[in-house]
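Morning. Coffee machine broken again, so started the prediction first thing and wrote up yesterday's gels while waiting. Chain of 187 residues, entered below exactly as on the submission form.
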Amino acid sequence: MADTGDINVGSVIRMNGELMQIIEWQHRTPGNLRAFYQGKMKNLINGKQLEHRFRSGEAVDIVRVEYKQMQFIYVEGDFAVVMDNENYEQIHVPMILFGDSAQFLKEGMEVKISFEGDNVILAEAPTFVICTITYTEPGVKGDTATNTLKPATLDTGAKVNVPLFCNEGDLVKVDTRTASYVERVKK
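Came back before lunch.
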């Protein structure tokens, strides 16, 4: 067993029989009181968030998690079918594990899948994706001076806000964590 000093943001621990991922982790030493760790965690099964205080040096069950880069193939119902690039084995990953970034998945894209033993516990889309704008209101010459945004539909079906100078057919780089426009990409 590890102790609280071995935990970092992103670590996966088992607490009360449930898998939790650490979102925030702070060491605090308030005045004359004993030091403690304040942790904000996300339950990997139901997605609920929880805050908990750990005593300094308290024993914690850190879960060994294996990460693998896999190729996204297609969506089948509520599952994403991904393929291992080494042995070409296909597995079904619940779409809910991708969270909001699921709307940016494209065929052939590399995704990061986390396993505890043989069970999939986390799935992440790439941080940045390049998409084509399939629909947006036309831009007018001179629309580069202000920081105003307009809605646009991407080739994946996702809707993001883009600057006024972006037009249909333009390639844009999008941050999948926040579903926000980053920059326009040249073809």
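The radius of gyration is 21 Å. Going to sketch it on the whiteboard this afternoon.
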